[in-house]
Amino acid sequence: MDPAFVFGYGSLLARGEGTPCRLRGHRRRWGVAMDNRRTIPGYKYFLEPRGGRPEVFVAFLDAVPEPGASCAGLAFRVDAAALGELDARERNYRRVEVTALLDADLGGRVWAYLGLEEARERLAVGVRAGTAVVSRAYVEGVQEGFAAFGLDFDTEPELPVRDLTLVRVPGPEAVHPPG
User: Fold this and answer.
1) How many helices (H) and strands (E) does the chain have?
2) Which of the ends of the chain has fewer CB neighbours closer than 10 A, N or C?
3) Cα(29)–Cα(45) distance, rounded to whole angstroms?
4) Helix (H/G/I), strand (E/B), else coil: 33
5) What is the pLDDT of residues 143-175, one digit of tens each?
């Protein structure tokens, strides 16, 4: 596989590695959400500090096309296995090649994860219902990732920020191991 990179503009900065750069023609916004009422094998949900599962839509960052805008982030090198893992992890996004839109030449193809329409619609449903929120740990993790590289984080949430505890749901392979 030729050199490949992923441009991270949110939680992927927590990987702690990469080249600071900008994605031209895009701006970062709170643009996708998951429905916390659903349990999806291999995914996640959130609990309140006392253990209750709130009926909310939890929002995450997205990068959306906007002429003249640019979005700061990090581009980090990946191999085929890492891309497959990210494709599975980033279920609210589609992987899009953005090599020509980066302000840096990294010597290989560059991908970014941009919000799926259905994930953007989930956020819109949550906003209309007044049940869209952002996890405080997610916001703080993104802010720390930006600060570690001396980058400005310019996208404070317009949605309520809540203390939520992440719960990872085992995938089907964990429930029914091959045998």
Assistant:
1) 4, 9
2) C
3) 21
4) strand
5) 999 999 999 888 999 999 999 999 999 987 644
Q: Which of 45, 44, 67, 43 is nearest to 55 (CA)?
A: 45
Q: pLDDT of 106-146, one tens digit each?
A: 999 999 999 999 999 999 999 999 999 999 999 999 999 99
Q: Which residues share a beta bridge with 23?
A: 71, 102
Q: Alpha carbon of 160 to those of 10, 94, 157: distances in Å?
A: 18, 26, 7
Q: From start to end of the chain, where are the E strands? A: 4-8, 19-35, 44-47, 57-78, 93-97, 109-115, 132-135, 161-162, 165-168
* Among candidate residues 149, 110, 153, the one with its CA nearest the CA of residue 17: 149
- Residue that the structure tokens 């799926």 belong to: 116
Non-local (6+) Cβ contacts of 24 within 8 A are 69, 70, 101, 102, 103
Burial of 77 (0-12, 13-18, 19+ CB in 10 A): middle
Summarize pLDDT for 52-83 with one digit per residue, the tens: 999 999 999 999 999 999 999 999 999 999 99
Cross-strand pairs, 27: 64
